[in-house]
Design a protein that fits this description.
Blueprint: H1 2-27, E1 39-43, E2 47-53, E3 57-59, E4 66-72, E5 78-83, E6 88-89, E7 92-94, E8 99-101, E9 110-115, E10 120-123, H2 136-147, E11 153-165, E12 175-188
Parallel strand pairs: 3-12
Antiparallel strand pairs: 1-2, 2-4, 4-10, 5-9, 6-11, 7-8, 7-11, 11-12
Length: 193
Amino acid sequence: MGKVIWLFTLVIVLAACGANESQSTTNGSTPSEPLPPAEATVEDSNFVYRLFTEKDVYDEFGDTAIFAELTYVGEKESIDIYHAASPFYFPIEERIRGIKVDYAMNEPLIVRTLKKGEPFREKYIFAGGYSDADDGKSVDFIKTLMDKGFPEGEYIIHGSAQFSTADSADLTDHEAFKMKTDIGFTVTKPVNK
């Protein structure tokens, strides 16, 4: 009877070890869902928000060309928008590592005039950070982004344009906008030539 209990316990322990092994091998694997496209557009009755990257694949730590555009398409010749330091936010997600990096920004009240049909464009610059509450893996990843640029991985930019419009100078009748979309790209180690 003691041998049966011992054998049963051994089988349970081995099964548990096998379950842990299969979890750890799938934890760092590439997700099966495809990345979002390299360009995405969101339209409103008066505005078009476009988020795009010039390439689907970049070299590790190389230059990237990621942009956001906001175009006024309403009936007036121009419109004033009100926003923080920029109307554009670029939070990052690296899928393979499972790390998300928020986008920090100063929040003064900036007034910008958009002329009808003329896109206002800004290029992505890193503006994330970390805190003592972040785990070591995330901190190391964010430090690499800050110091060197994008390491090898699969990236999603969860972009948004956030701004307000108002018909009066005191902003009492303002309308807030938050236009959101995602784009994706891959970063690979460069091939030696």
